[in-house]
């Protein structure tokens, strides 16, 4: 596990609030269910090999004593992986993607320049994901966001 620090946001009355992030990788596997169907399951990522699907869950918590508005989480797509389109999720968040790590938009609005021509961005072009939490985050409140990649 890796503890990430993020966002020190200046609040009214010059009080600082802190939102802490913790990122955890999981291996995403298909598991047979009792009814014979198959379902995705996130399991501890002991060994990862090329072709494996990996899910990242980023848990956030307001460790301050004041509500925090505008909580923004940015996470790069790990090296040697490809983002799995439409895998980013987070209840109560607005999700945008980036092909350069700085400009974010819905994937339908992203383009890349390749061999002198502009084309719509694809999964291999996504470099970063951004979530903006819609509502203020109360003290001690927690939530999580997720995304998946495939290992090259």
From TrEMBL:
This is DUF11 domain-containing protein. It comes from the Bacteria. It comes from Thalassolituus maritimus. Keywords: Signal. InterPro entries: DUF11_rpt, OmcB-like_DUF11. Residues 43-94 form the DUF11 domain. Residues 1-17 form the signal peptide.
